[in-house]
Amino acid sequence: MDHIKAIAFDLYGTLFDVHSVASRCDEQFPGRGQEISNVWRQKQLEYTWLRSLMNRYIPFEHVTEEALRYTSRHLGLALDDETCRSLSDAYLHLQPFAEVPDALRELRQRGLKLAILSNGSPHSIGAVVGHAGLRNSFDHLLSVDPVRVYKPDNRAYELAEHAFGLNRTEILFVSSNAWDATGARYFGFPTAWVNRGGKVFDEMGQKPDWEVNGLDALVKLLGAAG
Amino acid sequence: MDHIKAIAFDLYGTLFDVHSVASRCDEQFPGRGQEISNVWRQKQLEYTWLRSLMNRYIPFEHVTEEALRYTSRHLGLALDDETCRSLSDAYLHLQPFAEVPDALRELRQRGLKLAILSNGSPHSIGAVVGHAGLRNSFDHLLSVDPVRVYKPDNRAYELAEHAFGLNRTEILFVSSNAWDATGARYFGFPTAWVNRGGKVFDEMGQKPDWEVNGLDALVKLLGAAG
User: Fold this and answer.
1) Which of residues 136-195 of B touch A (CB under 8 A)?
2) What is the CATH number of the domain that holds A43?
3) Active site residue B10
4) Could you confirm whether the keyword Hydrolase appears in this record (chains A, B) (predicted)?
5) How far apart are CA A43 and CA A33, in angstroms?
6) Same domain, B118 and B209
7) Reported pTM
8) Which of the 8 DSSP states describes residue A76?
9) Residue in A66, A73, A154 closest to B204 by CB
């Protein structure tokens, strides 16, 4: 990976655990937290894709609330507006995966430029990263909001290329989301898939260049190749 | 509904039961048919949306095969190329829902123009409709293939407007898929959602104009309003 000068990370599910909202859901609906979190996340993703296709972009926080409203009706759970907002706010306080802070520090020490490229709004990204004390780990926090379309549309990936001022072949894209890694690969980024849960990759005509089980493994991989 | 002059139907899940492939899957993988069918259908949909967003259209039959390949790996089932093709061919032999043939006949007798507007390729649509003996029920069989993008992109819905030569407000769009009914509604079609299974509608800022539990109920609704 000698040619890699910068890394763009996906946020949700890659650096931060989206299912850390499950405990908040479980306080509100005892015993249902994980189930709610699973349906909620799936619908949140679907709504970003569908709204992009329909050319009906709204910011990620609103998509998140709409997906939670669907989830509560689908699971037959009563949800008032206040609880909906309060649970959705849990997406602003996600926990980073355990190895992430150390791994980011090591990558920066090697002189790599780092960015987040996320479907989240600037406010969401800032809040999540700020609460985790990781603001200084990144050169750029990039939201798709200026282009008003969600990943895996090419216009989203272009934001990282422009921010770094590098050719896409010099930017490693890192995501736990197989569909996101697929989109990045089609765009032309060298791509690493973070597969923490022994999942299988998607079948859309692309494979990641590297597969790792965490960011610590990514640091080792970059060290070995560098 | 006096102003309705034509009806465009979604095919998969609306006129024809996508889960009629479960019995073929069950012959191949005993006891797993319904589970395979559920994952397969979900991934098939996701791949149509994601490929559209990535501008990487491939025909629906190929998406169907890719989705089945993912499904078999996800569920840990061995799937050779021949079995993959053979099971995917089950999507060419779907069963119509029981009330569909009579309902189509009644709608035509009232002078309405009828079309299918489907993500399926021309070959897939023709095969499904032909095997069910319903070819003569439709004035148009419309595939998204010429525009190389899947629903709910507006370019797909425009195909029905052009084929009928009518204003979109004169064309009733009928789908069991809430995301499809949402896209059609944003496009400007009056829209009926066929909800056979007591599902909840999606939360993407639209509601269907009508909700029915089958095509027989739609016939009654049109009769009552006409």
Assistant:
1) 150, 152-154, 179, 182-183, 186
2) 1.10.150.240
3) yes
4) yes
5) 15
6) yes
7) 0.96
8) T
9) A66
Q: How far is B182 from chain A (nearest CA, A)?
A: 9
Would you say residue A168 lies in a domain? yes
Domain boundary among A91, A115, A137: A91
pLDDT tens-digit map of A84-110: 999 999 999 999 999 999 999 999 999
B1 found inside a domain: no
A74–B182 C-beta distance less than 8 A = no
Let me know the angle formed at the C-alpha of B129 by B123 and B134, rounded to the nearest 5 degrees.
Answer: 145
pLDDT in tens, A201-213: 999 999 999 999 9
Closest CA to A174 of A45, A15, A10: A10
Query: Which of A181-185, B21-25, B204-208 shows the lowest per-residue confidence on average (mean pLDDT)?
Result: B21-25
Angle between helices B60-74 and B122-131 (to 10 degrees): 80
Q: By the 8 A CB rule, do A137 and A114 touch?
A: yes
**Domain, as residue range, for B45:** 19-91
The count of residues in chain B is 226
Give the pLDDT band (50/70/90) at residue B226. very low
According to DSSP, the β-strands at B210-212 and B191-194 are parallel
Q: Do B54 and A183 touch (CB under 8 A)?
A: yes
Distance separating alpha carbons of residues B161 and B117, to the nearest angstrom: 10
Same domain (yes/no): B114, B138:
yes
Distance (Å, rounded) from C-alpha B140 to C-alpha B206? 27
- Rounded Cα–Cα distance for residues B152 and B180 (Å): 6
Contacts of A66 in chain B (CB under 8 A): 203-205
The 3-state DSSP class for residue A82 equals helix
